[in-house]
Design brief:
By secondary structure, the protein is mainly alpha-helical. It is 77% helix and 4% strand. The chain has a three-stranded antiparallel beta sheet. The longest helix has 38 residues.
Length: 256
């Protein structure tokens, strides 16, 4: 963590220094070797900032760095003046994974539309697109299984871990409605958990009962039913109020 903090400070200093470069201050359209070199340096710094944000597990820093980097990929004037980046496909895949992690399907598809054909066809991006399709159709087990095929995307482990947690919660929600209970072995397989300890931790979080080698989802269902009953009882005064308001309105109409 100490090394990450040191690198982060160095990158922040670099970003501040970039702002002061005369070649950039004159504007990205300036046609000079110095300007092109400054633009290339800026793109590289922002690409490193994204990698650092992922390693630090900082979603906010990732979003800010991507906002600074994206124009270097999508602005036609900049793209013409700079050589293609070897990092674009993998970093674009990371950004798409981030959007899946925060459940932003609309933005996911908007970003997908901005990608040129050669980047869209890159294996890293295609794997994320396939994963998104499985999530949209509710194939959560296939999505969890696909996680293993995405580990070859550089620096993807952070987002894959968060996405696995999100998908596992969806699977848990479906499982408790589909089954009254499951054996612990079945629950471990369905939820793709690695150990009994992980299953017990998830059971504690959701209020499930593990007994005699089975996971009983009924406890959570009972809590949901009690909460729904409480909500219905709490809404009764509101219904009475509405009825009274309608009565007053009718009285007013009669008087007028």
């Amino acid at each position: 963590m100490g090394d990450l903090s040191s690198v982060r400070r160095d990158l922040e200093l670099l970003e501040l220094a970039l702002i002061k470069l005369p070649a950039l201050a004159a504007g990205p359209q300036t046609d000079s070797a110095a300007s092109q070199e400054a633009l290339l340096l800026s793109r590289t710094v922002f690409e490193r900032s994204i990698v650092l944000a992922v390693q630090a597990g900082d979603l906010g820093a990732f979003q800010r760095a991507w906002a600074q980097l994206e124009p270097f990929y999508t602005d036609a004037a900049l793209a013409e003046r700079l050589p293609p980046s070897s990092e674009r496909a993998s970093l674009s895949a990371l950004n798409l994974l981030r959007l899946l992690t925060i459940s932003a399907p609309a933005e996911f598809h908007c970003k997908l539309e901005l990608l040129p054909d050669e980047i869209l066809a890159a294996p890293e991006v295609q794997k994320v697109v396939e994963l998104e399709a499985w999530l949209m159709e509710g194939s959560y087990n296939r999505a969890l299984a696909a996680k293993d095929s995405l580990v070859d995307i550089p620096h993807s482990s952070y987002f894959l871990s968060k996405l696995a947690d999100t998908v596992r919660e969806e699977v848990a929600a479906c499982s408790r409605h589909a089954y009254g209970s499951l054996s612990t072995a079945e629950a471990l397989e369905v939820l793709r958990l690695d150990s009994q300890a992980q299953l017990e931790e998830m059971a504690d979080t959701h209020g499930w009962v593990i007994k005699d080698g089975r996971v009983d989802f009924a406890a959570e269902e009972d809590e949901d039913a009690a909460a729904a009953a409480h909500d219905r009882s709490a809404s009764l005064p509101a219904s009475d109020l509405i009825a009274n308001c309608l009565l007053y309105a009718k009285e007013l109409e009669r008087i007028v």
